[in-house]
């Protein structure tokens, strides 16, 4: 799935080409694309017509488009899933093979917004916003934590949560209720940079070590964002259909049997939660098994110490 850098690239493109435009018409070409909208396809299209879009927002891997008008406080929530694409295309461009939703605008810009999704795991839906939230956060993702590039991300709370949870560090990095936007690729990259094994218990991370890891998460995501994210195939593209190329700079992910760029040891891959974890066995040594102390056995009583009662 696309992670924070890939989704942020899309958000920036939508902000440039879609924000501030009024919706003229919406065509839902596949019902699964709006299956999370409780009112169905016709209701989704009708409730968007005539609305003026605001500034596109993102939290973790989710995008939403609030409305900049006086109507009900609602936002369009977009989840790209495994293969979803939000493309800004000329109105006369041929339809994509897996086009699911088309949004036309009431202006003469000559472009329209298209949601294309080969596997139909993603989709668009309309949701009420969290009361009082200035960014129009949809209530459906109110439980998603802020991401590490968010200025409001609370580092102290993040470390406290790490210490309290009985889990391992990579599981924690992928827990979207703890820290959002980090997926399998960037978790492996940050852990390699921090020289941490993916199975390291979170309770063993002191505050400076947790802060160091968080710094590496930010560094690798910022570097990926600068080159358009990571695109292993044509499914992960920006709004103009262009792929990112951070895969050329990956230090861990996908590099099984290749030499570690730090020490030269062959990188390894291990199955992990229906995914894979890539790591250097020398730089990222696995944690030692916990040693459970056994209670000392009581010495047997000497028969000479026993008294016979007559």
From TrEMBL:
Please give the CDD domains that the UniProt record associates with this protein: EcFpg-like_N
Annotated spans, Disordered? 290-310
Database matches in SUPFAM superfamilies? Glucocorticoid receptor-like (DNA-binding domain) (SSF57716), N-terminal domain of MutM-like DNA repair proteins (SSF81624), S13-like H2TH domain (SSF46946)
Instruction: Name the Pfam families on file.
Output: Fapy_DNA_glyco (PF01149), H2TH (PF06831)
Spell out the catalytic residues: 2-3, 61, 275
What SMART domains is this protein classified in?
Answer: Fapy_DNA_glyco, H2TH
Is Metal-binding set as a keyword in this record? Answer: yes
Could you tell me the keywords of this UniProt record? Answer: DNA damage, DNA repair, DNA-binding, Glycosidase, Hydrolase, Lyase, Metal-binding, Multifunctional enzyme, Zinc, Zinc-finger
Q: Tell me one GO molecular function of this protein.
A: zinc ion binding
- Describe the location of the FPG-type domain by residue ranges: 251-285
- Residue positions binding DNA: 98, 119, 165
Look up the record and name the cofactor or cofactors this protein needs.
Zn(2+)
EC no.?
3.2.2.23, 4.2.99.18
Q: Where is the Formamidopyrimidine-DNA glycosylase catalytic domain?
A: 2-122
- Give the note describing cofactor binding and stoichiometry: Binds 1 zinc ion per subunit.
Q: Which reaction does it catalyse?
A: Hydrolysis of DNA containing ring-opened 7-methylguanine residues, releasing 2,6-diamino-4-hydroxy-5-(N-methyl)formamidopyrimidine; 2'-deoxyribonucleotide-(2'-deoxyribose 5'-phosphate)-2'-deoxyribonucleotide-DNA = a 3'-end 2'-deoxyribonucleotide-(2,3-dehydro-2,3-deoxyribose 5'-phosphate)-DNA + a 5'-end 5'-phospho-2'-deoxyribonucleoside-DNA + H(+)
Q: Name one GO biological process term.
A: base-excision repair
Say which family it is in.
Belongs to the FPG family.
Q: How does it assemble?
A: Monomer.
| Function noted in UniProt | Involved in base excision repair of DNA damaged by oxidation or by mutagenic agents. Acts as DNA glycosylase that recognizes and removes damaged bases. Has a preference for oxidized purines, such as 7,8-dihydro-8-oxoguanine (8-oxoG). Has AP (apurinic/apyrimidinic) lyase activity and introduces nicks in the DNA strand. Cleaves the DNA backbone by beta-delta elimination to generate a single-strand break at the site of the removed base with both 3'- and 5'-phosphates.
Q: Which NCBIfam families match?
A: fpg, PRK01103.1
Task: Specify the protein name.
Answer: Formamidopyrimidine-DNA glycosylase
